[in-house]
Design a protein that fits this description.
Helix content is 30%, strand content 15%. The protein has helices at residues 19-30, 49-59, 79-91, 119-128, 155-166, 204-213, 243-254, 271-274, 287-293, 335-353, and strands spanning 11-16, 37-43, 64-68, 111-113, 136-140, 176-181, 192-195, 227-230, 259-262, 278-279, 300-303, 322-324, 360-362. A 7-stranded parallel β-sheet has the order 3-2-1-4-5-6-7, covered by helices on one side.
Amino acid sequence: MVNRKAIRMRRILIFANTYYQLILAIQMKLTIFSEDYVCLALSDHSGNAENVFERMEKEKFFDECVFVRSKGVIQGRGFWQKCKEIVQLSFFKKNDYAFYLKDLHSLSFDELICYNLEVDIYGIFSILSGYNDKIQYSSYEEGMLSYDNFYYDSTKFKLIRKLRKMAGKPAIFDRYEKFYCVYPELYQGFLKPVAIPQISTENERLKNLVAGIFRIQGGVDYSKYKYIYFESVYDTEGRGIGELDFLLNFADRVGKENILVKKHPRSTVHVFEENGIAVDTNSSAPFEALQLNYDMKGCTFVSAMSGSVLSINSVVEHPSPVLMIYPMTEYAKYEDMKKFAMHVQDVIDQFQKNGKLMHISVAHTADDLPQK
């Protein structure tokens, strides 16, 4: 019999910049890391993140939970600052990103996990490797569109790696081994995929935790609606693609009473309400959290260019149907939207070729749309 007390508990540090990443970190702690010491570092990159952090910390769910004010830190750095970074990250025990770790009880970790591999993460790794030179680095998914995410090994990062090796220090790319994801069989990158179990909407512990940290309280009966439309932010940004025209025509087709609009967090338009179409009043909570706490299996998610319909909905055991309608909009006027649409279509094709995500369909013409 194995003496569990004799086995040293692994220490894992997970950085989360988005609420999807936070929910996935919770799922990993509940499942594959249930026997490990897990510290969550939640950044201020998402709206209302500090309040979410305070509630998360009070739950005592993670073994440690720290808040990192890192929004905008790596932007706007000058030439000399970048030169200083190379020297710091290559030779020094500490660097300008040490403040990310100031509230941790201990800096000895066996594994560092995050999604974005940027210069600040290089800085964090260089510090942590001074406390455990065997530390491993891993990444985890940010939804189905992240499975082919490419980490750019720039000239600067190659130089840092070479200098660290000369100094006898471990380099992050030499410790980069795992990619944690829900569909490991579909990952085709250079890392070792590790399965995260699909999220069950019947898991009361997860649902109650998510409801508590995001202050979800009822008020919207989602079962009343057959369709939830996810607005993009392009109208607000002055790059409209004809979403309103589509939605009004769609409402005539299926009935306004059957549609609920989930407005984009940065949206400033009120055209939906003005045209008699209901708008979701749960605007302060991320939709990922709402879907985990409400029965939406009877709703079809409709979207032109919103990635929200492809996040948590793609990793729960019983996803809602998704209808992508970007071919019926004017998205092709903008090069970045064309690239996004091509990427979405490529990912959908790849997954469905392997029998996954069959709940997603793409409407090219009115014949592909449902009727009342």
